[in-house]
Amino acid sequence: MPDVNPRFDGQRVLADLNALRAIGAFKTGVHKPTFSEPHLRSLDWLAARLPEAGLTAAIDGIGNVLGSSAKAGPKLLAGSHLESQNQAGWLDGPLGVIYALEAARVINTDPSIDGAVEVAAWCDEEGHFGQFLGSRSYVGAVTEAEIDAARDRSSDCTMRQALHDAGFAGRPRLHAAPGRHIGYLEAHIEQGDTLESGQLKIGVVTSIVGIWQYRITFTGAQNHAGTTRMAIRKDAGLALARFCVAIDDSFPAVCGPRTVWTTGRITLDPGAPSIIPGRAEMLFQIRDDNPAVIARLEEHLQRMAAELTARGGCSAAVERIRTGAPAMMHQPFQDAIEAASAARADGKSVRMPSGAGHDAQILATIMPAAMLFVPSIGGISHHWTENTDDVDIVTGADVYVETCRRLLAGAAAR
Amino acid sequence: MPDVNPRFDGQRVLADLNALRAIGAFKTGVHKPTFSEPHLRSLDWLAARLPEAGLTAAIDGIGNVLGSSAKAGPKLLAGSHLESQNQAGWLDGPLGVIYALEAARVINTDPSIDGAVEVAAWCDEEGHFGQFLGSRSYVGAVTEAEIDAARDRSSDCTMRQALHDAGFAGRPRLHAAPGRHIGYLEAHIEQGDTLESGQLKIGVVTSIVGIWQYRITFTGAQNHAGTTRMAIRKDAGLALARFCVAIDDSFPAVCGPRTVWTTGRITLDPGAPSIIPGRAEMLFQIRDDNPAVIARLEEHLQRMAAELTARGGCSAAVERIRTGAPAMMHQPFQDAIEAASAARADGKSVRMPSGAGHDAQILATIMPAAMLFVPSIGGISHHWTENTDDVDIVTGADVYVETCRRLLAGAAAR
């Protein structure tokens, strides 16, 4: 095995990423919501690049870009997404797509390698219209009715209208051909500081954590903020604040080593400065890769709510509104990433779960799937300041291409 | 002095209040926002009644209804408002207007009484378009520019458009004629449970509390709710929740005996379930009739915010956005209400501050002003279930008319 793959070109990877950054630029990041003009232009840009890697490009009826190879031998599916969160970073999505493109360029044009990398850009991983609609469509988990009902969470535009405006209406949706791929590989920035703080270069993802989401509702008595004495109030907003603090105080003793929990939204009803809130609601999320931990925490939440209600005053109700089972990454693929890191990144890798959701968790439902992470500076993500050192981007690409090579070689040898 | 005033008619008072309830009825209350069709119909209804009390009716350029008397002798200004909060109660406003109408009917048509009661319905006391725009216009405190800028807080319709649609555009705004009135009297439901719980019939208002309002802003670091470890988070929403709880725990030791405080609205930014809030904001209000108490509490708030910021993590900033000085009610008028309560309500009265704002605080800036309260069942207000027992409504009206008679008699005797 050569120390350097002469066909791998780190500068080409950086140039491609910067080309995508220039489409829909926002400060040092991008603003590229699903089906926005810059997003559509990015899809076209990718489709135009794919032939360089010997791939036939198609954009399907849900906006997935797929490149297929006629080369003989095993096929590895590889990719990520091109749209962004609003006013967000330049690497979340494009990094994994360009790594896949580079791997396809290196491998598919090399007659000495048996097999090919097929590139995918899954539409709407960022959830402007739903949850993983592109990759879920590919694995056959999206009905026409779900698309009928989908709306842009910012503009309220229907997905049907957006697909029509993009020129995708009426196109067939492409689905995975059973047995075609040996598996799926996705690269992503870490979106956390584990790699950076440990001076590591590659995260070998072991699992993608499940997300459990709850609506916790507090009911008190709406009344006048000037005339209602403090002693007789049933302030639902205050009950909510106390509940938030109690969660934060008590969860550490009940949670697992990597559990995270977040109150992302609070609504007081009616939300007027002169009215004591009669009702309050919080959206609360727990992530862990161990369902037993989640079960324990959910039971704890329910007990807290029951105790609050039993004390009189306000009542609390905990309603689970989203359940996401964790996805385990394929063990032999993890080994391949680790081996490639040993060869190309001085072994500076660590096995770690992903706290964020990714298309890989969807692909994992129908084929072996794996992910590798590169460091993200300051752990920032979903913000335009998100960034990764160019050197780390190139190292990650090198490890990624080497991983693809090893996975195809292993499959071809069987 | 007769035990019963033969001209006073409690059943007429109840009939009038029910006639107004039937205009814009919502469940057992009303939905009568400022300049809505039912509100405008209510203004017309009142204007049509005023001649029965010997008054010439006018509706001016800001929607105030004013009845003026040509009768000789001292004049007492009396009234309240006719619009309601959204989906709110039937008595908040109309009670004071109908008491004033009844007093005018009894007194103005009685040649044995020197002087007259002039009736007013102040527009928009409920603040759909601003703060006390009708009564503030009457005392000369509203500029044309303020009207230009005013918008309905629910529909965003401009006040100019609403005035035009109501047919009031271009009419002059009527202002107080200096020296015309000996003072102003307003009746209202208590909007609290002091009278009911003490089995009292009349509240003699000593002062209308001031309202101080604050925007308290927390700044942390926005980040991904899945990938950011708990230990390194700067969650602005959690900082806000802890601040709310700290206020509630520490204020009782610093506040006055009747201070009330309320967090009416909480906003987390960006408010998404999967993003740690980087910024959070609460609207916080304090009411008290003692500015020294407010000053102490404001200092306490600022110290809490400074301490939070000094601890690192999130920072907090307290910004005062509204200052309302308390209004003291005229002492001799309070004495007159108390004497009338002794004569007509078995002395079942108590002196008490008003925790809510009322037009009387605006009139108090240019003339002696006073208020009397009647009991409200369960202390409920700003809700359609708001109510007062018919017997208490009639008793209150009797005391009100008697108070007007005594105030005019006192003025005529000087």
Automatic annotation (TrEMBL), chains A, B:
MF terms in GO: hydrolase activity, acting on carbon-nitrogen (but not peptide) bonds, in linear amidines; metal ion binding; N-carbamoyl-L-amino-acid hydrolase activity
Cofactor note as given: Binds 2 Zn(2+) ions per subunit.
Membrane-spanning segments: none
Cofactor: Zn(2+); Mn(2+)
InterPro entries: Amidase_Cbmase, Bact_exopeptidase_dim_dom, Peptidase_M20, Peptidase_M20_dimer
EC number, as in UniProt: 3.5.1.87
Residues engaged in binding Zn(2+) 1: H81, D92, H188
Top EC group: hydrolase
Protein family (similarity comment): Belongs to the peptidase M20 family.
The name this protein goes by in its record: N-carbamoyl-L-amino acid hydrolase
Annotated source species: Bradyrhizobium ivorense
Gene encoding the protein: amaB_2
